[in-house]
Amino acid sequence: PLVESTLDIEGMTCASCVNRVQKALSRVDGVESASVNLANETASVAYDPAVVDATALAAAVEKAGYAGTLRQ
Ligand code: 9UX
């Protein structure tokens, strides 16, 4: 079964930022879908916990040039 987690994303200021973060998350193995919200500065990600975890999702966001932290 998929798990859905919300990440807080820092550093997005335009729509292209949103696309970059969304693509970075979507490319991660195990990610089923990623929905990024510029106004809320969040990303909602559905993923297979057997393949990937929230730490790896945050790392993918960082690698794309933004700060990503798991929302508690
Ligand atoms: Mo927009 Mo975001 O011109 O890193 S792509 S600010």
UniProtKB/TrEMBL annotation:
It is found in: Cell membrane. Residues 3-69 form the HMA domain. It comes from the Bacteria. Belongs to the cation transport ATPase (P-type) (TC 3.A.3) family. Type IB subfamily. Necessary for copper homeostasis and likely functions as a copper exporter. Also required for full virulence. This is Probable copper-exporting P-type ATPase V.
